[in-house]
Amino acid sequence: MKRWFVAAASLAALVALSACNSSKDVLEPSAIAPTDQSNALANAEGTDVGAPTIAPSATAPAPLSPQAAAIVAKTRVQFAPIVGTPVEAATPLTQRLGIRARERGITLAGSTDTTPPGIIMRGYFSAMTEGKDTTVVYVWDVYDPAGTRLHRINGQQTAPSIGSGDGWPVVAPATMQSIADSTIDQLTDWLAAKPG
Fold first, then answer.
1. What b/e readout covers 136-169, taking b as 16+ CB neighbours within 10 angstroms?
2. Cβ of 114: how many Cβ atoms within 10 Å?
3. HEC sequence for 74-135
4. Residues 6+ apart with CB under 8 A from 169
5. Contact of 13 with 60, CB cutoff 8 Å
């Protein structure tokens, strides 16, 4: 129980720090510079990349109205480096983010793109094991290119731990894939509801 409290307090502090809306404090230009992770997402969206070895989405995305689909399609999204996850947990997440974004009609921006993205997403993650289950808590802040936070997506996913141990080593890839699906679906709903 003590670990749960420490992890929750750490995540709360991380979220509080990320709540700043100043581009000086939170989102320096170097922080939104394209990375290998954002390139991987953009490549996953393209047709010239081999299919990732992950299971198809468990739920089909709800269809959008033609007007909402047009709004979503014109928004270019770049994912900043994800905070708090090791590569082993981030890989199934980033692969599924690319797949689900493509399913929902979202264009991902990579490091080789010359056109700046319309929005930048920064993700903060924490994993806590209690008993036989592990909970992944996540927060995505959605920023405009100037560094102003526009929206926040957050949630948690609890699933049985795989293997023995605590934290990230026992998080199943399917858990991270489910978080990716939920993230893109919530982003799509928010984009579709925006005027314009």
1. bbbbbbbbebebebeeebeeebebebeeeeebbb
2. 5
3. CCEEEECCCECCCHHHHHHHHHHHHHHHHHHCCEECCCCCCCCCCEEEEEEEEEEEECCEEE
4. 88, 163
5. no
* pLDDT per position as a tens digit, 57-79: 555 555 556 555 556 667 899 99
Tokens of 129: 């094991």
Confidence of residue 126 (pLDDT cuts 50, 70, 90): very high
Tell me if 144 sits within 8 A of 155, measured CB to CB.
no
Tell me which residue has tokens 């209690």. Answer: 130
All domains of the chain, ordered by start, with CATH? 2-19+30-51+62-193 (3.30.160.100)
- Contacts with 5 (C-beta within 8 Å, 6 or more apart), sequence order: none
Distance CA 134, CA 139 (A): 17
What is the residue type of 133? D
Burial of 94 by CB count in 10 Å (0-12 exposed, 13-18 middle, 19+ buried)? buried
**pLDDT confidence of residue 140:** 98
Ramachandran category for residue 194: left, alpha or beta (phi over 0 → left; psi -120 to 50 → alpha): beta
C-alpha span between 108 and 96 (Å, rounded): 13
pLDDT band with cut points at 50, 70 and 90 for residue 31? very low
